[in-house]
Amino acid sequence: MTTIPTSASWPTRKQPPPFSDGEKGKGKTTRKVATYANGSEISAFTALPDQNHTEPNRSTIKLKNTINVFNEIKKQLLSSNPELKITMKSIIAKSFSETENNMSNWIERNKEKVLELKSLNIENLNLTFLPGFLANLKNLKVLILRNNKLTSLPEWFGNLENIQGLHLSNNTLKDLPASISGLKKLQFIDLSNNLFEEVPEILKKMAEENKDNRQYRFMICNIGDSQVQVLGEQISLDYLYRKLYIRCLNNVLIRTLLPLGTILACIYAYSFFYRKN
User: Fold this and answer.
1) Which end of the chain has a smaller Cβ tally under 10 Å, C or N?
2) Residue-range domain boundaries for the chain
């Protein structure tokens, strides 16, 4: 049962005392900033004026990116596999390399569950790079990376060989790695609001070479400003609409009419045997 905190358990805010000259010399960086009713204290890290106060370094940013991505994977896995056990305390280490290694090991230990992921949404996380353990999500069909701060994609990106939809809008990409040609099933890619002025040549080449690997023999690429191009086979919009119509019709038949037919058949069989008896 969830316990709702009462006012007696809330911390009482106090103005933190200034550091003494002796404390500054010792490089003290924590202060008591609040006290609970039971007497326990809350401490907070405080930057000393003009001392040890720098912008987050590259490792700190990479660590933050990595934790954010891992948290999203964990959230999606736990929603369908509540029996999975994971605590971030066992994952987070003192260094970025150790932390990423712990995450990779956890993903490897839970490989069967991880490979069940077909879609991953890691948008709006201010990502500047993608952690390497994403390369293990080989069964992903849709990857959403929009609204981040990516300037490039890693070379291992081509390992995600089952990707069909790739959403990269609202980043700062200006080119694609050669390894992206490994995405032989890519059907749709959104590059809008990046630094592309035209469809990258590598996508045109992919569209022509990988016809037989995709559900449809063309690829749709959006680079923004209404520049949506259909790559691959020369087709008319009528042809595209017919394909989409047939696909929707199949979904209706499979998801609606077949179950309905099964129910009606059961009702008929029941009424037949009921009358017979």
Assistant:
1) N
2) 10-45, 58-235, 236-277
Q: Which segments of the chain are extended strands (E)?
A: 12-13, 30-35, 41-45, 119-121, 142-144, 165-167, 188-190, 218-222, 228-232
Contacts by 194-201 with C-beta closer than 8 Å and gap 24+? 194/168, 194/169, 194/170, 194/223, 194/224, 196/223, 196/224, 197/223, 198/223, 198/227, 199/223, 199/227, 199/229, 199/231, 200/175, 200/176
Q: How far apart are CA 149 and CA 172, in angstroms?
A: 6
pLDDT band at 180 (very low <50, low <70, confident <90, very high): very high
* pLDDT tens, position by position, 217-260: 678 888 887 567 777 765 444 555 555 555 555 555 556 666 67
Q: Give the N- to C-terminal CA distance of the chain in Å, as an integer.
A: 53
Residues contacting residue 210 through CB under 8 Å, at least 6 positions apart: 184, 185, 186
The pLDDT of residue 3 is above 50: no
pTM: 0.64
CATH code that applies to domain 58-235: 3.80.10.10
Structure tokens at 39: 């007497």
